[in-house]
């Protein structure tokens, strides 16, 4: 049965919501786990669960699909790593703001690497979305770049690479196999970094079981699986635009659960962000219809 493409867009919006609530869960979980340990657990466990469930699909694995999954896992790991380490040296608001640059980068990456058509509505929507992200995340601090900001800029590039290549590889290979491979690659790389750089003696798993469970089964296993399947039917630039609403859901859930302040500036930024998605999805067809109706009335 053919599924309307709008269903996949809604699926990506739901993914962004899962990731948005993941900020709340991560804040709690990081009280008990070092960053690389947390990353390793959530991705390794998710990968192994999917591997057990879809073990019969392994027969469809080829060298090309394996290499594609490894590349996706490499980008995913680098994105999470630079974002997490960058957060140590910069503010959370600047970290979120700079990470949001990926929505601008994706259309140009797809154009440069895969010769995808650079549609004017995609570019305009991306710029508008970035303005919304700026209003959502900027706290009035200096816009000058420090070491943490530079790392976060690389994070935006790696996440943009991940979204772009998921959009291409998921159309060629089994998206479930790609998800399994990239999960295991990310988990293994995070484990290696944890062994090398972190002290795991202070882990207290009992204090964050619920948060760990959410990050593993919802924010990772379910969300990334949905992303890989939905991007099989959407353009990378469109997917990046919808997924960037994570920047909206994060503050919203933080306000509801953690009682953080939700300002007028953030609400305005969220409205602009959603407007950018409407423009991208409809290509301003609603305005065309409105103007056409007005023109027809003016001739009466």
TrEMBL record:
Record has Cell membrane as a keyword: yes
Q: Which chain regions cross the lipid bilayer? A: 36-55, 67-90, 96-114, 121-138, 150-169, 176-197, 209-227, 239-258, 264-291
Compartments reported by the entry: Cell membrane
Enumerate the UniProt keywords alphabetically.
Answer: Cell membrane, Membrane, Transmembrane, Transmembrane helix
Q: State where it is primarily located.
A: membrane
**One GO CC term of this entry?**
plasma membrane
Q: Which Pfam families match?
A: EamA
Q: What's the superkingdom here?
A: Bacteria
Q: Which family does it belong to?
A: Belongs to the EamA transporter family.
Q: What is this protein called?
A: DMT family transporter
- The record lists the organism as Clostridium paridis
């Amino acid at each position: 049965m053919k599924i309307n493409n709008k269903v996949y867009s809604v699926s990506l919006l739901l993914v962004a919501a899962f990731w948005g609530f993941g900020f709340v869960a991560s804040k709690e979980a990081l009280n008990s786990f070092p960053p690389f340990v947390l990353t390793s657990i959530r991705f390794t466990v998710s990968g192994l669960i999917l591997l057990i469930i879809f073990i019969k699909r392994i027969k469809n694995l080829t060298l090309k699909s394996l290499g594609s999954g490894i590349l996706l896992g490499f980008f995913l790991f680098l994105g999470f790593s630079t974002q997490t380490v960058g957060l140590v040296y910069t503010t959370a608001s600047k970290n979120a703001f700079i990470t949001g640059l990926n929505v601008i980068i994706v259309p140009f990456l797809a154009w440069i690497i895969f010769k995808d058509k650079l549609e004017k509505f995609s570019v305009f929507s991306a710029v508008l979305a970035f303005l919304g992200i700026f209003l959502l995340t900027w706290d009035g601090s200096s816009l000058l770049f420090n070491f943490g900001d530079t790392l976060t800029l690389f994070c935006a590039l790696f996440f943009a690479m991940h979204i772009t290549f998921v959009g291409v590889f998921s159309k060629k290979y089994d998206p479930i196999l790609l998800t399994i491979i990239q999960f295991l690659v990310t988990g293994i790389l995070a484990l290696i970094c944890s062994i090398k750089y972190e002290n795991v003696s202070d882990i207290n798993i009992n204090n964050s079981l619920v948060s760990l469970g959410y990050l593993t089964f919802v924010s990772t296993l379910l969300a990334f699986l949905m992303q890989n399947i939905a991007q099989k039917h959407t353009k990378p630039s469109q997917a990046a635009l919808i997924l960037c609403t994570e920047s909206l859901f994060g503050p919203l859930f933080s306000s509801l659960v953690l009682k953080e302040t939700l300002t007028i500036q953030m609400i305005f930024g969220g409205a602009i962000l959603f407007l950018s998605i409407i423009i991208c999805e409809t290509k301003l067809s609603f305005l065309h219809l409105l103007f056409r109706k007005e023109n027809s009335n003016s001739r009466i």
